[in-house]
Amino acid sequence: MTIIERSSSKLIAPERVSGREQKVLRAGFIPLVDASVLIAAAEFGFAAREGLALELVKDVSWANVRDRLAFRQFDIAHMLSPMPVASMLGLGSNPSSTITPFSLGLGGSAITLSVRLFDRMRDHVGIAEQASALENARALAVVLSHGKDRGEAPPTFGMTYPFSSHNYEFRYWLAAGGIDPDRDVKLVVVPPPLTSDALAAGAIDGFCVGAPWNMVASERGVGRIVAAKQDIWPSAPEKVIGMRPEWAESHPETVSRLIVALDAAARWCDRSENHDALAEALADPRYIAAPAAIIRRVLSGEFNLDARGNRRVIDRYFSFHGNFANYPRPSQALWIFSQMIRWGQIALSKQNMKIAASAYRPDLYRLALGAGAGPDEADIRIEGDKEGDRFMDGHVFDPAEMADYVEGFAVKAASAAQLSTDDI
């Protein structure tokens, strides 16, 4: 059953977008299930109801998406949640100011290791088939220590982009188990659709990436899923809609109508009775080009952890709308910034904190959907202090105590351990 639902916004769509505003938006995306809201907005009429047409362009890498947005080949883009933060801070090979007024949801990524590596963890430590994410990380640490003593080369792990949720979450998981991601393993960039093939070929020993590629690897019998995003930090933002700030400023009505359309699409995607239709749409070669059956299970949070029949069900593995999943909270941007500091990508300063927070624009979200559309609490809040929303290692993130937070980790980059806090 497919239900088309209107947003609760009071903004009424006109017959057409007027004046300087745009009616057709070119949007780049990577073939992942977390692009669902953007794809649904185009496929199921939500954008059209707001007088907009979305021209979706499938790309092959996040660097391409970044560059094509910067060079004005895209008006908006499906982006990794840290990409606007990195862009505003001038990080990366081609930084261009980027903001986000809308998150595409929570959840949807996981960490997968090769079957060979997981079997070594089982043999050395005797971990249970349903071991926790932290237990799996600690077991991997034992295997790596044993391999180092024998003179083995460190394993190679794939992530999607240096400034990605996957990089920071993979590092967080490794470090929680006592593994230094800069010394004990080798991290390389692998485009999401290539991760399963790279694992099968032995080019990498594991990866952290968005759905459905973890499930594809496990069902092929080449990978074992050892942690999900919810295990690391349930509220961690995954993907966002990115846009150039000057484009947003010159097209305010278009931005508002886009947010209204995405809000309606997110509500629709969150309803389980729509998941059959959504899975079929996503499976199309124009989008993800993966089996609809796998996508449907992913949407339900039903994981085949490996090819041996071990399963796990994660309630709300994807949250497309509920629990303010679309709200671009600046404290989440600041947590991303904290991980950039932790791993030596940038220095801590008051100015950098201000710039990092400015990448997430809740003011544009509230302008489009009404002041009551967002949460009642402050935009910058303490993260990880509530039951059901803990970090896997028990740390709590207080943006007002950024220096102490970064210093409190046992595993971090050497440069992060020597931060100057004179400007804090």
CATH topology of the largest domain: D-Maltodextrin-Binding Protein, domain 2
Structural classification = alpha/beta
Helix content: 25-40%
CATH architecture of the largest domain: 3-Layer(aba) Sandwich
User: What would CATH call the class of the largest domain?
Assistant: Alpha Beta
Rg, alpha carbons: 21 Å
Q: Give the distance, in angstroms, between the N- and C-terminal Cα atoms.
A: 54 Å
Counting H and I runs of at least 4 residues, what is the number of helices?
18
What's the mean pLDDT score?
92
The largest sheet, given as strand count, sense and whether it forms a barrel, is: 5 strands, mixed
Using the alpha-carbon principal axes, give the shape: globular
- Number of DSSP E strands: 14
Describe this structure in words.
The model is unreliable at 1-17 and 417-424 (pLDDT under 50). α4 packs across α16 (350-358), α6 packs across α7 (165-176) and α12 crosses α17 (362-369). The protein folds into two domains: 24-107 and 236-294 and 318-373, Periplasmic binding protein-like II (D-Maltodextrin-Binding Protein, domain 2); 109-235, Periplasmic binding protein-like II (D-Maltodextrin-Binding Protein, domain 2, 3-Layer(aba) Sandwich), CATH 3.40.190.10. It starts with 23 loop residues before the first strand and ends in a 17-residue tail after the last helix. The chain has 18 helices and 14 strands. The longest helix is centred in the middle third of the chain and has 19 residues, at 252-270. The strands form four sheets. The protein has a five-stranded mixed β-sheet, with helices on both faces. It has 424 residues and is of the alpha/beta class.
